[in-house]
Amino acid sequence: MATIEEVDAPKRQSRQKRGPPPLVRYYLVLYNVLSALGWSYILLCTLVHVFDLDGAHSSYKEPLHAWLARIPYLPAARKVFATGIAARLEASLPAWAIPVFRRAGTAYARVGKQTAFVQSWAALEVLHVLLGWVRSPLVTTSIQVASRLYLVWGITYQFPETHTNPLYASMVLSWSLTEVVRYTFYACNLLGYEPAPLLYLRYTLFYILYPTGASSEALLIYATLPHPGLGFAHSFTPSVLSALHTYVREALFVVWWPGLYVMYTHMMKQRRKVLGPSAGASGRTLGAKPKSL
């Protein structure tokens, strides 16, 4: 799910060291810069593909439900269900949006491997917390990293039906926009700067990107559930592990929505701390050099 940003209280900040040792600081700057570049590449590739900015798909005419029908190893009942939904959805779209919708359904083929590779490096963020190099809550960081890794390796990698789901494109766009801003902000902060535009974007983009990202994640999980979705139709599946994983996905789909509410309201509070009137009263100036790294 989208990343929760943490803001330390002034008293806690005053007790913290000014930052990690120089070598660790240089490493963290490099890590954040490379992460920002990686997500920038994914963002650019996804935008080019979905909106056909390079003209490579200008003659693409095949409807999305035709792609769904060719997914290998997908049971026929699931194919009929998925293609039917795709056909009805396309019919309800305006003419200009249909090509975008169709290309979004092929985004995994363009950026799926790259997204999994770049996202996997986020596992280092848990190590950074354990080593005390960054001041983030261990439990929160672990949950956030684990949920992302589960989506790229436990959902999209394992289930071919997600490879032609347009929600994959919206999820990746939400992730990449969030991460480009976040990692760039962290790199600047480690270098002793807090650019006002980045600070504003960091605590404003969530209004759009949290709902689009988290809902895309949840609905991709739902898309992998046996038809008709939530229920006990899969109770007698031949594979015990497969049945167990199905129940896990059902539980995750249910808890994803209250989790989004908690994260969303949390970020609204954090935004008021950083950008609200109380931020100026506590001496924080937009774009000023940070007092603590």
Can you tell me about this structure?
By secondary structure, this protein is mainly alpha-helical. Helices cover 67% and strands 0% of the residues. The chain is built from 13 helices and no strands. Helix 2 runs antiparallel to helix 6 and helix 9 (166-190) packs across helix 11. The longest helix has 36 residues, at 240-275. The chain is globular and about 60 Å long. The protein starts with 9 loop residues before the first helix and ends in a 12-residue tail after the last helix. Residues 6-17, 69-73 and 232-236 have low confidence and may be disordered.
Describe the structure in brief.
This protein has 293 residues and is mostly helical. It is built from 13 helices and no strands.
